[in-house]
Predict the structure.
Amino acid sequence: MDTIINRKTNKKKYLLIAIPIFLVLGYFIISSVTKKRSLNVSRAEISIKTVEQGFFEDFLVFQARVEPMNSILVNIIEGGAVQEIYVGNGDMVSKGQPLARLYNPNSELNYMQQETAIIEQINNLNKAKLDLRNQELNLAKDLIGIEHDYLDAKNLYDLNKRLFDQEILSKNEWQTTEEGFRFQKERMSIIKQSVTKEKQANQIQIGQLNQSIGIMDKSLSILRENKKNFLITAPLSGRLSSFEPILGKTYVQGVSIGTIDVMKGYKLVADVDEFYLDKIKIYQKGTVEFNEKTLEVKIVKIIKEIKGGQFQVEVNFISTENIDLQQGLSFSVRLNLSEKTKTKLFSKGSFSQETAGKWIFVVNGNSAERRAIKLGRENPLYYEVLNGLKVGEKVITSSYKDYADVEVLNLQ
């Protein structure tokens, strides 16, 4: 009879070996997932600042350049090629002084043609006026002859009337004399009325002709004055700047070839970042350092046109003392935007370019951990801390360009 032999299983043995392996793998997987990403960094490569309790003042610092209080552009009134240059850039000039001469043969010919046409029109108008005067003279001559005929008829009438009354003159001759006198009388009356009306009409026409001649004379004067525009003169006295015409170069009408600065007072002009457009107001006060003195200034003009991310402001000195300024000097203007307030703050750094001020590395011994924060106002020196940091804590404020995905920095 056969005996049944039971095969010994190795399941328990395999199970005892697999469990530790799975546990070790699970540990490493969990560790790799939960472990914070770190990076070794040298302390010499970073900037560490301390969070302090101090006075925060919102202010703005910008560079302003000295410019004359008033300037005027030197413009090309009549385009042409530069023929002569009489002064140089930076020279002091007086009002009316010649600066340069241009020449344009086409414009010169056009002026001559216009001048000839205007003179011809003036001559025609003067001839028309002369014709009217001659017409009046002829009427006056005719009136003298008519008056003479009337007087002859009247004298004959008076004589024949006496003769007729004395029955010396026949009735037929008297009637002829009487009719002749009546005719001359009515004729003279009608001619006088005609002459009067003709004179009135002539006077109106002559007045209109004189008005037209006056307009033509004025046009001729303007035309001749415009011919002088080829000579560029200084519109006022001052220092000539940005004046660099080139002999032979053609400039079109309306182009500016220089500036005259009136040397009576200066102002400061600055280009400010558009971020501060709503924060800067007219008459806002600030300070500048000059000759080891702190001088007060104020905003007097804001040009709100944005160019290249900046807008322009004009600043004047409040002080009435004589300030020896020169065009081209540059000043650092500190403009106060708020009153001083006590708050938590720390020095500015370039870390915010990567974090937008929403997180920062906080130093704890030999490491620095990433922490969410909330910043408030800022000025060129400090950030205001609203949340996430305590007074006395140290933070890394240098660039985070290589740390964007790191959570812990190991400081060495």
Notes: Confidence is low (pLDDT under 50) at residues 30-35. Residues 105-165 form the longest helix (61 residues).
